[in-house]
Amino acid sequence: MTRPCGSVPSRLHLMCRELNREPAWVAAIRLAYLRGWVDVDSVVEEANLISGRERTVADVLTTMCDRGLLREGPRFDETGRYLVGPSLQQRAPSPAAVKRLSRHGLHQWVRPADD
To answer: According to the lineage, what is the superkingdom (predicted)?
Structure first.
């Protein structure tokens, strides 16, 4: 029988670690607004993903670029950086809202050492 995370004994709490992750696209949007750019490594770190998800993140960023959320930055082939695209620029939050984004990021949670 599977129990919700809140009812799992503390010694088994690591089984619920997926709750400390977020979709790559959410992390990418947050970083795009906070930094002005994103790349695969920064999204993996921001989303608190486990190692080995880089290819998936790269696919997500490419799709976001295709849809106008991101755009390839200068020297993209060297850096792999995407910049804020036209769709995100049109919907940019206020500067105060951008500051709140960083305080609510999952990247502040500590990942278990056995990942």
So the answer is: Archaea
